[in-house]
Amino acid sequence: QVQLVESGGGLVQPGGSLRLSCAVSGFTFRAGLMAWFRHSPGKDREAVAAVGRASGSTYYADSVKGRFTISQDKAENTVFLQMNSLKPEDSGMYYCAADFEYGRTWYNSRAYNTWGQGTQVTVSS
Description:
The chain is about 0% helix and about 50% strand. It is mostly beta strands and about 120 residues long. The protein is globular, with a radius of gyration of 13 Å.
């Protein structure tokens, strides 16, 4: 049974940093994508970043490019999201997604079949 468990969220001031972790259990890394999405009450669910588990290729939303970095530790079966220069508009619930359907775009939430419970990120003074 595949499980994704996010951690690392919290309250941070604008300009600060957080690193989110997504621990995967039930399977080891294989070919495909894993991604981070976020959602806040005033916005639609938004794709943030994705990484190819085999290729290492990365993808980013324009709104976070240059500030966020997605990475993975295959030995620990964990995916990370390093978030720097955080802005209030980055606030929201961050979700890790896996079990990507081949042939879909990386930013399509419906392409992922397994989701974590989310971790809250709040950027505020």
